[in-house]
Amino acid sequence: PHPSVLSLSPSSLSVDAVGLQRQIDELAAFSDTPAPSVTRILYSEKDVLARSYIKSLMKEAALSVREDAVGNIFGRWNGYEAGLPAVATGSHIDAIPFSGKYDGVVGVLGALEAINTLKRSNFQPRRSLEVIMFTSEEPTRFGISCLGSRLLAGSEAAAAALKQAVDGQNISFFDAAKSAGYKICQEDLPNVSLTKESYSAFLELHIEQGPILEEEGRSFYVSIGIVTAIAAPASIKVGFEGNGGHAGAVLMPARNDAGLAAAELALAVEKHVLASGSIDTVGTVGILELHPGAINSIPSRSHLEIDTRDIDEKRRNTVIEKIQHSASKIAKDRGVKLSQFTVVNQDPPALCDESIINAMEAASRHLNLSHKLMISRAYHDSLFMARISPMGMIFIPCYKGYSHKPEEYASMEDIANGVKVLALTLAKLSLD
Ligand code: HGY
Ligand code: MN
Ligand code: MN
Ligand code: MN
């Protein structure tokens, strides 16, 4: 008979919170910007150093380590029925410019600590347990979010987009990969995809990146968020072109200002999002570049990148259609050319698996941790892993919901709670 998970009494789950915090701090040092900010971009020199750090921790945990063609890293603890589909958990360690040191990292280092905690409590996994470090979750370098997990989930759109993807320095995806030691070509990408039988469950531990758990923390402390669904993200690239010219000498009626066209579209994004009729529709223009970018030169080119999301896919797609309509209308009214309107990704939402949610609730109750069901408005690698495996996510509170900025913070106690819920849930699912 399998040792029941509940033999893992809460006291037997001793998380090395101090050691975990030290690892979080050590990993944060691999950054292209000074502390307390973290910048760690896909395939950069700091990313490569961070990857070897993660691999060394996996080896220290006596996991068998492998990497796939694009650098997704897998650390496996073989179960006593290693032939069964494994239970996987993981997240990312890449970090957008000037961000924090917990986003993604808690789900990679915390997963390794969950494994070590189970090992210290003499737990024997039936299904193997596998920790995954996804090669890059942030869209920073090539504009494609969740690059590693999209390819693992078999996304042909992601593989096709990589064919001509270049970064801000005009370096191609494949040259960037090569510089990081991944000698790959287009034909290698389909081999990255995993079959649907690879895992019986995929879990991700992550900071909430929103204020709900922490806000309630002020009244009654909610330690654990159990995610029920992940919102549907979309990103759009837009370009306008005008004649530009001298900011003093060209009179207003003769202008077709590409910068003002961009500004008008940015406000149209806000208008269409607010008109959706739901608080769950969001949108922003995170990138707005003007060329030539001189105060006394009328912008002849503008480039915007729009991020819009909703938990309701249809409602989000209606917003995208309205944005596209506005872009064409603004171009016509202002006599500028709409040189680009590309929907980079328009992903469906993902639902979390009921039995995983129940296992997480049981673990939270067993640990006597307050918990609540909630949706994730941020996307995660889990959004794509849900396409090949039942998926679940555990959230921990983060200070004022701050994320994607250096003030991002989660306490050692909250991280340790998340690790314990993850460890117990992994153990339970491994014995299923
Ligand atoms: O943008 C996101 O939702 C994720 O945190 N990268
Ligand atoms: Mn992020
Ligand atoms: Mn993240
Ligand atoms: Mn409950």
Automatic annotation (TrEMBL):
Pfam family membership, one: Peptidase_M20
The keyword Signal appears for this protein: yes
Domain of life: Eukaryota
InterPro entries recorded: Amidase_Cbmase, Bact_exopeptidase_dim_dom, Peptidase_M20
Cofactor(s) for this UniProt protein: Mn(2+)
GO molecular function: hydrolase activity, acting on carbon-nitrogen (but not peptide) bonds, in linear amidines; metal ion binding
Keywords of this entry: Hydrolase, Manganese, Metal-binding, Purine metabolism, Signal
Subunit record text: Homodimer.
Stored NCBIfam families: hydantase
PANTHER family: ALLANTOATE DEIMINASE-RELATED (PTHR32494:SF19)
Protein name per its UniProtKB record: Peptidase family M20/M25/M40
